[in-house]
Structure formats: structure tokens, C-alpha cells
Specification:
The chain has about 150 residues and is α+β, with helices and mostly antiparallel strands. The protein is built from five helices and six strands. A hairpin with a 6-residue loop joins strand 5 and strand 6.
């Protein structure tokens, strides 16, 4: 797929939002979605609370690209590597919580988070035979619970 289609849509969206100070990086990794990182001086504008604006922006761009080219390659959009850092932090928090559950035999409940973030925690702990994870509650207040495996 040509990166130009994605780039054009990102640039148009940024223009409509009045954002001109940004750059776009494309990174292809074998067997992974195309990674697009937008670098800008004030990233919080496009990240939003808990990454909600970033998720919405990615959804909009994907819909626009798919409309032009239904065979598009899957891609993820990041802003100043926010997602990458957030994923690293969530993996660390998941490991720490799992250790706590193993030691204290008490469940740990995370605050509400997006499906994307919950999935990171579930996948991080999927191979641990001593603990179990589950999502509880209704959107947008859905949480991950880590408990001792019974």
C-alpha cells in the first residue's frame, strides 16, 4: 500500500484541526501492523484522556483510507510514541500486580481503561498459571481484575 494515502488523510485532518507543527514517520515491521508516529510539540491535543482522542483519530483515518483502498494494510497511529510508552507502563503494572496477587492472594482491580489497554494486560499475563485476569463492568467503566487462579 502506498503510504501517501494515509499521509494525505493525516495531513488533511491536521489542517482541519489547525495543527501545522508536526511530522509523520512510517515504520514497517515484519508480521506487525504498519506503525505511524506523528511527532508534534503539543501532543496532548491529539492524545486526549487515556489516549481516547488518539484512538478516535486512528479510527477516522482508517475509515477514510479504507474508503479509498479497501485492501489497505492494517496500521496503528501513535503520537510522540505515547502508545509505545503506555504499553510498556501497562506491562510493568500488570507484572507488579500479578506479583502482589501471588504473594498476598488478594485480587487487584485496575481503574477503568480502554479495550486496547485491557487487552495489553490480559496478553501480558496470559501465560501465568498462578493468576487469572478478567474484565468486569460496562463500558466506559470496564476494568481488569487480576486474581489468584482457582
Amino acid at each position: 500500500m502506498e503510504f501517501n494515502i494515509i499521509k494525505q488523510h493525516i495531513e488533511k485532518l491536521m489542517e482541519l484541526m489547525g495543527i501545522s507543527d508536526f511530522s509523520i514517520e512510517f515504520k514497517e515491521i515484519e508480521d506487525s501492523p504498519l506503525a505511524i508516529n506523528i511527532k508534534m510539540s503539543e501532543p496532548q491535543i491529539l492524545i486526549g484522556r487515556g489516549g481516547s482522542t488518539l484512538i478516535t483519530m486512528q479510527h477516522i483515518i482508517k475509515r477514510l483510507v479504507y474508503k479509498k483502498d479497501p485492501t489497505f494494510v492494517n496500521f496503528t497511529i501513535d503520537i510522540n510514541n505515547y502508545r509505545k510508552e503506555r504499553e510498556r507502563l501497562l506491562r510493568e503494572l500488570a507484572d507488579e500486580a500479578a506479583s502482589k496477587v501471588r504473594l498476598q492472594k488478594k485480587s487487584v482491580i485496575f481503574p477503568p481503561m480502554s479495550a486496547y489497554e485491557r487487552r495489553i494486560i490480559h496478553l501480558q499475563l496470559a501465560g501465568d498459571g498462578y493468576i487469572a485476569t478478567e474484565s468486569i463492568g460496562e463500558e466506559p467503566y470496564r476494568k481488569v481484575v487480576i486474581r489468584a487462579y482457582s
